[in-house]
From TrEMBL:
It comes from Amycolatopsis mediterranei (strain S699) (Nocardia mediterranei). Residues 241-381 form the Acyl-CoA dehydrogenase/oxidase C-terminal domain. InterPro entries: ACX4-like (IPR045008), Acyl-CoA_DH_CS (IPR006089), Acyl-CoA_Oxase/DH_mid-dom (IPR006091), Acyl-CoA_Oxase/DH_mid-dom_sf (IPR046373), AcylCo_DH-like_C (IPR036250), AcylCo_DH/oxidase_C (IPR009075), AcylCoA_DH/ox_N (IPR013786), AcylCoA_DH/ox_N_sf (IPR037069). The keyword Cell membrane does not apply. Belongs to the acyl-CoA dehydrogenase family. The keyword Oxidoreductase applies. Keywords: FAD, Flavoprotein, Oxidoreductase. This is Glutaryl-CoA dehydrogenase. One of its GO terms (biological process) is fatty acid beta-oxidation. It comes from the Bacteria. SUPFAM superfamilies: Acyl-CoA dehydrogenase C-terminal domain-like, Acyl-CoA dehydrogenase NM domain-like. Pfam families: Acyl-CoA_dh_1 (PF00441), Acyl-CoA_dh_M (PF02770), Acyl-CoA_dh_N (PF02771).
């Protein structure tokens, strides 16, 4: 019996999808897992793994056309889970690139923009980032963006700052969202690395997702051609459509992070001995393991059904928000119990669990805090907005 997929949800996938997951897991276990702690401790990203990841055909899995795989959101979810089970930092790199960046182009780009960017991004030959959050604007992005865009002939001039932008220190293209000074609406722009006035600076000293190269971006009179404006991103509602789609991925990341901690705690319980026998034979330890598995199983059932709704084009914003809020909350509980089970060894990097505990804090907050997602669901339940 699979002690992580306890209700055998992956068995619903066709054989070719399970084969892809087997290949991916082989790559992650042999190439990523052995180096994850080293890179995390040094705040470095394993760039050498990007090219082989591209050969696994997992980039933009659920997108169709433009040479993209056209597989299901359910398969994409299990891919995200396995990445996060191994290293939440690498899963975040993957989600920013294939979800937020590719998703912005896929949903909001012109045919020319899609044809130019999506095929090489699918192959991980071109890497993307997504610039929405600002130093003074996080949850209030729908109303309070301070980054501005002003049109001058066939160009747009962008000024402002962005913060916490994953991949931005090395991405080939950064999707930057800015407020048009003319009509006050939020629009999206494709800023290519090396654009004059575009300065990304790596954020140092993080205690979570340390391998992710987050940047603080300064935009000083950046000139962007009209051809690089996302042609179908005209209001924040278009930005929100991207976030709604990728919120599912964050919920899957939370499940993967939970499983990563749980798997290591379970293995530890079988090997660690106290009072002359493995601690896994004690009632209180088994109680912790079962509570962890319950959290994981409930969360996995939820995200699997959410992805099925997404594949059927029936998923709502409220359903995505409930999944993000619930799964990240249960993740926090689960990684905490894994650390508790391992005692003092739980805070040592060599035992892995401490990395998952720290990374869970970032996953709990990004792409919509629990509180903001709760308000989205609460509005749907009551018909009353409690945002302000």
């Amino acid at each position: 019996m699979d002690t992580t997929d306890f209700y055998a949800l992956a068995d619903d996938l066709p054989d070719e999808d399970r084969d892809l997951l087997t290949r991916l897991r082989g790559f992650l276990d042999s190439e990523l897992a052995p180096v994850a702690n080293w890179h995390w401790a040094r705040e470095r990203f394993p760039h050498h793994l990007v090219e082989p990841l591209g050969k696994l055909d997992v980039g933009g899995l659920s997108y169709t056309g433009y040479g993209l795989p056209g597989r299901t959101s359910l398969l994409d979810g299990f891919v995200t889970l396995d990445l996060a089970r191994t290293d939440p930092s690498f899963a975040t790199f993957f989600g920013v690139h294939t979800g937020l960046a590719m998703g912005s182009i896929y949903l909001c780009g012109s045919e020319e923009q899609k044809a130019k960017w999506l095929p090489p991004m699918h192959r991980f030959e071109k890497i993307g980032a997504f610039g929405l959050t600002e130093p003074d604007v996080g949850s209030a992005a729908s109303r309070g963006l301070k980054t501005t865009a002003r049109r001058e002939g066939d160009e747009w001039v962008l000024n402002g700052e962005k913060k916490w932008i994953g991949n931005a220190t090395f991405a080939d293209v950064v999707v930057v969202w800015a407020k048009d000074v003319e009509d006050g609406q939020v629009k999206g722009f494709l800023l290519e690395q090396g654009t004059p006035g575009f300065t990304p600076t790596k954020i140092e000293g993080k205690i979570a997702l340390r391998s992710v190269q987050n940047a603080h971006i300064l935009l000083e009179d950046c000139r962007v051609p009209e051809a690089n404006r996302l042609q179908h991103a005209n209001t924040f509602a278009d930005t929100a459509a991207v976030l709604r789609m990728t919120r599912t991925s964050v919920a899957w990341q939370a499940v993967g992070c939970s499983i990563g901690a749980y798997q290591r705690a379970l293995a530890y319980a079988k090997e660690r001995e106290q009072f002359g026998r493995p601690i896994g034979g004690f009632q209180l330890v088994q109680d912790l393991l079962v509570k962890m598995l319950g959290n994981i199983t409930a969360s996995l059932c939820l995200v699997a059904q959410l992805s099925r709704l997404q594949d059927a084009q029936k998923m709502t914003e409220e359903q995505a928000s409930l999944a993000k809020a619930f799964c990240t909350t249960k993740m926090r509980e689960t990684v905490g119990m894994a650390r508790e089970l391992m005692g003092g060894n739980g805070i040592l990097l060599e035992f892995d669990v401490g990395r998952f505990v720290a990374d869970a804090e970032a996953i709990h907050s990004y792409e919509g805090t629990r509180e903001m997602n709760t308000l989205i669901v609460g509005r749907a339940l009551t018909g009353l907005s409690a945002f302000v």
